[in-house]
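Researcher: For the record, we're logging two predictions in this thread. I'll number them. Prediction 1 follows.
Model: Prediction 1, sequence and structure:
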Amino acid sequence: MAFQIIMLVCMLPIVPIIYVMLANETKPKKNIILGVTLPYDAREDAAVIDICKKYRRNLKITTLILAVMPVAFFFVPWFSVVLTLYMLWIDVVIIIPYVIYIKANQKLKALKKENKWFSEWSELTVVDTKAASVEPKRLSVYWMLPPVLISLIPIVVTLCTKLHSEELGWMLFGYGINFVIVLLFVFLQRMIYRQKKESIDDNTDISLALTRVRQYNWSKFFLWTIYLTAAFSIFFWLFIYNGMAMLIISIIYTLLLLIISVRAELVTRVMQEKLSSQTGKLRYKDEDEHWIFGLFYYNPNDRHFIVNARVGIGTTINLALPAGKILMGFTALLLAAMPLLGVWCMAEEFTPLQTKIVGGEVLVEHLNTVYEENIDNIASTEMLKTLPRLGKVVGTATDNLLKGKFHQSDWGDCRVYLNPQKGPFLKLTLRDGNIVLIGGDEKVLHQISTAVLP
């Protein structure tokens, strides 16, 4: 039940975020409605209004259905099955609302063609050279230096205190990922100023204002993100052995990132909507032919790899470039492969763990041999009827399987291979002082205990 609640808290916010972003596409921004460029007068056309109205209604109904679907997952008792269902649900949540959007986009595009709502610039790639030549006011890179240094603290301290510990590798890996993410966000914050400039008509002042609005809000977003990630890296380090605290911190960090990213985009949209409210009356930029469904940018004449997205949050990529095709293919493959994580977890959860004693060796098997120890290396054994409180460090922790490295307040780090629902359990104290907890058939555990020399 706890896992279902955690997954629901983490995943459910995706539904309203997608709804708010897509519902907002019916408001004209830079002369664009539902990814289609329209002249000023067409905004009040009865057919346009009807398409937008039906689109919002269908989107709302679909969103409500998607939001209540996870309730059914609470009746599923298996961790791996629940995870698989959530992975499939996320794919559906991401794809179905965009299918509704694409249908509305195609209807509006057909209406545009029928009414010949085209700009005299429709066949041209328009660039406001004056606006493009204006250098933006960039936030000093020194603002990014403190969080970069903060995110280095866990790495430096770990190298100083655990240089010869077997934990060094996985700790440095975790802390290193956080440090790399901070550096990535610093890079993206600088890239904001190098994106293709906004332009909608021959009014340079509006073009400059539109560009500055996006640069300001998203530059501020990345600055917040850099500091949040640095703070997360510190909490990750301080609570590395507390699984519940780590989970809570990760959820808070993720939710904060979602909130500030959605806020950055919505504030940008509102301001750009006001700035472009009176445009589209004469000549205006119309690049619909370069936007597939208003979602995917494909322009072989544009060498920009990253461009501002028409739909959704932030930026998108130019699919006309080889790197764009590769990245899009990788993203699609990742979405398709997400449910496979649940399938792998099913194999983990439904394969019983077996403990054997073979030729003086203690073997624990689960899909393969996960633990092997010579009887002579075991100093003592102790049969436990109940498990002590354990915190996962690296490995698997489900209702019916604990496998990997765990932390116990009295023992420190230990290895655990057992089904917590089926006792008793055997505590092995090795001659080097390490502790291993194993489970399995009670007769086998007694055989192991008897075979260990006093």
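Researcher: Logged. Prediction 2.
Model: Prediction 2, sequence and structure:
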Amino acid sequence: MDPSVLESVVNRPVFDLGTPYNMGMPVHPSHPPYVFTLQRRHGDTMRPGGLGSANELIVMCGHTGTHLDALAHFARDGIMCGGLEAASVQSGGRGMTEHGIERVPPIVRRGVLLDVAGAEGVDILPKDFAITADVAQAVVREHGVEVRKDDAVLVRTGLMQRWNDPAFLDLENGQPGITADCAEWLAETGVYLGGADTMTFEFIPAGDDRLPVHGIFLVDHGIHILENADLESLAAAGVYEFLFVMSPLKIVGATASPVRPIAIA
């Protein structure tokens, strides 16, 4: 490798877009809670020379914390992306035999931040704020960036500031996010993935849990969804264009994987 190429990367600012994992963290009500315990503690066993060790047991759903949805996560009328019948590719403890998260390669590509909250001049978007295609395109113009084919497009609502607040999980009263028409615009552009700093990525009207954007992205167009991304440091630095790096765990047959994405400005 050309040393100048390596130097140009390692000396750039790096932004951690992942959430911490800890007992009591927010988890979608349809998923099991995150459980962590020390399975072995220092002093439980000893090795020659006075050496001891500790390890942990973790129980969690793949859709916990910052995570990437596999295409196997959603189906419409029993049909997944590419016309696959969901019933024919799911098998108990073996999980999904097609479209599992282990099929997703390491992701290294151009990233774009759409700081909608910043563009609206608020810390956090209201629960009833719908990010339509027109709204998103106006933010693109304000930031002076361009959304291109194969991009990773991350949408900031500011809601991550309430990560440790019960209000983060108040989905029944709505959640800001992108609408179906915005999803169609991104899909037509050919983005590789869409992500946000919210639990379910898309706009949720109060009392409505249909999640049409999940169907548009995961089923209709094969576009991955990143949820619960911490975009606060990127927004604070005014970084709207960056190198996006992320690699999901190879959990065979899983519908999602915890991830720790980074942005290199």
